């Protein structure tokens, strides 16, 4: 087995892990990135399916994602606007496809008024919610003990309005039924995007795409590291450190041993940059503290099928449609024009989430395909039934993801464990887009978390070096005015 030494081991070659690794390298620390998959990118994946380029994972960039925009600029990546000219389509409880413009669906007047009112109520609550500490909201405990579905039921007697408001959080973002997560979790989701109104505005939240695919972000970050320091196909099996390190993060000289099937790396710090649902795929010695183990049992990813359908032409444009479509009553709850930059073919992307995904996954593949295409045809007409390329992104079947799009807590979990997930465990730090404040579950959030983890690790290492220097100072020099007192404010943690 190969043995190496590094200052820091980063586990996971997604946007978070690679951002942290690049930042650490720039600061002068030696780093190695260990990735279980055979590719770089994590939940970002751009690939060719039957000759057609698809964004199998995350893909969109919105104006508020300033850190991602800054990173795209630094990496020399260009963006282009999502096609949105023409009318959108909404299918209500009556099953009739209706064209519309704007953000409020074309339901009856009372339903529209109720939707507008509830968006306003949610915007007010979101404005009071700090995405970095939603558990600090004065009503956090109350909001975390009521499901989003129950809260919506208390707000309006209009079922269609409730279903539509729920769609933007439950179906489109957390990809879980609204009765399984709390109002506070919903507020965090919206606060991370700036407001609930931003989630309702598809032209804002799904503004632009990256030419060539968003996976280029982690790919270009990886290029900034030595090829020998990004090891693919190396799932980490064990992390071992001493019990003393569990008591204080900056133990001078304390080393951690990280083991894969083919490699052992001895390091001073470890960053675990994978989704929380995968933390327990690693053996820890000593075990993680009991509350950390409990926390992992109260976080889970949702379920979604990302459907790609390519046609000889973007026929919907000829019909005056933008291809933006919504319905809480259809198998495909939302869909968009996803034609790649410069292509003459047309591509639709649609999403099937939570219990609807459960239902179609119970069908044979051919029947599931037909059911999904029939849902697309309900929006766009019979031409949608005959794509030249069809593909389903199923991240729940990915061994090193197991769901979408990010982990969220069950009822009461956010206030009970939320702050804990940001706390180091000895020499270990954990983080991914699942733990982001701004940009939660997006690449912007992944980069923000990667930068934070790198900064905290650098400060921790600097603090450890300072401790070692202080330990070397003779006792006689540790009185008033000595280096011990004058540097007391220099500790990182």
Automatic annotation (TrEMBL):
<feature type="domain" description="Amine oxidase">
    <location>
        <begin position="16"/>
        <end position="456"/>
    </location>
</feature>
<dbReference type="InterPro" id="IPR050703">
    <property type="entry name" value="Flavin_MAO"/>
</dbReference>
<comment type="similarity">
    <text>Belongs to the flavin monoamine oxidase family.</text>
</comment>
<dbReference type="InterPro" id="IPR036188">
    <property type="entry name" value="FAD/NAD-bd_sf"/>
</dbReference>
<protein>
    <submittedName>
        <fullName>Putrescine oxidase</fullName>
        <ecNumber>1.4.3.10</ecNumber>
    </submittedName>
</protein>
<dbReference type="InterPro" id="IPR002937">
    <property type="entry name" value="Amino_oxidase"/>
</dbReference>
<keyword id="KW-0560">Oxidoreductase</keyword>
<dbReference type="Pfam" id="PF01593">
    <property type="entry name" value="Amino_oxidase"/>
</dbReference>
<dbReference type="InterPro" id="IPR001613">
    <property type="entry name" value="Flavin_amine_oxidase"/>
</dbReference>
<dbReference type="GO" id="GO:0050232">
    <property type="term" value="F:putrescine oxidase activity"/>
</dbReference>
């Amino acid at each position: 087995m190969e043995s190496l030494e590094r200052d820091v081991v980063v586990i996971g070659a997604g946007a978070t892990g690679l951002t942290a690794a690049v930042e650490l390298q720039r600061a002068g620390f030696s780093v190695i990135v260990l990735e279980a998959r055979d590719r770089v990118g994590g939940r970002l994946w751009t690939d060719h399916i039957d000759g057609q380029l698809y964004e199998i994972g995350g893909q969109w960039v919105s104006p508020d994602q300033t850190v991602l925009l800054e990173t795209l600029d630094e990496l020399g990546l260009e963006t282009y606007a999502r096609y949105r000219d023409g009318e959108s389509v909404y299918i209500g409880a009556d099953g009739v496809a209706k064209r519309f413009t704007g953000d409020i669906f074309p339901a009856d007047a009372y339903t529209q008024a109720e939707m507008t009112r509830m968006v306003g109520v949610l915007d007010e609550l979101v404005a009071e919610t700090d995405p970095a500490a939603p558990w600090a909201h004065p009503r956090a405990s109350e909001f975390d003990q009521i499901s989003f579905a129950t809260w919506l039921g208390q707000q309006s007697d209009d079922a269609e309005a409730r279903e539509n408001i729920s769609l933007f959080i439950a179906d489109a973002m957390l990809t879980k039924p609204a009765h399984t997560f709390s109002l506070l979790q919903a507020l965090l989701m919206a606060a991370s995007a700036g407001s609930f109104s931003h989630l309702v505005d598809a032209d804002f939240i799904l503004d632009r795409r990256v030419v060539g695919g968003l996976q280029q972000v982690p790919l270009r970050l990886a290029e900034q590291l030595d090829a020998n320091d990004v090891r693919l196909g190396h799932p980490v099996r064990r992390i071992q450190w001493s019990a003393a390190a569990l008591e204080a993060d900056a133990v001078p000289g304390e080393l951690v041993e990280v083991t894969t099937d083919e490699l052992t790396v001895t390091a001073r710090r470890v960053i675990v940059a994978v989704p929380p649902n995968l933390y327990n795929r690693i053996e820890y010695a000593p075990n993680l503290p009991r509350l950390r183990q409990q926390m992992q049992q109260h976080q889970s990813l949702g379920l979604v099928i990302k459907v790609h359908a390519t046609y000889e032409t973007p026929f919907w444009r000829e019909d005056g449609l933008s291809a933006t479509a919504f319905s809480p009553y259809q198998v495909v709850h939302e869909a968009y024009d996803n034609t790649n930059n410069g292509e003459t073919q047309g591509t639709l992307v649609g999403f099937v989430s939570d219990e609807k995904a459960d239902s179609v996954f119970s069908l044979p593949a051919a029947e599931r395909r037909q059911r999904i295409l029939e849902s697309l045809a309900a929006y766009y007409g019979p031409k949608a039934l005959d794509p030249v390329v069809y593909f389903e992104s199923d991240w729940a079947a990915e061994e090193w993801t197991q769901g979408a799009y990010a982990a969220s807590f069950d009822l009461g979990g956010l206030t009970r464990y939320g702050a804990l997930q940001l706390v180091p465990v000895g020499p270990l730090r954990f983080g991914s887009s699942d733990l982001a404040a701004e940009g939660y579950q997006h690449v912007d959030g992944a980069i923000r978390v990667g930068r934070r983890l790198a900064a905290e690790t650098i400060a921790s290492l600097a603090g450890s070096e300072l401790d070692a220097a202080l330990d070397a100072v003779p006792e006689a020099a540790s009185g008033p005015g000595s280096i011990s007192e004058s540097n007391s404010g220099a500790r990182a943690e």
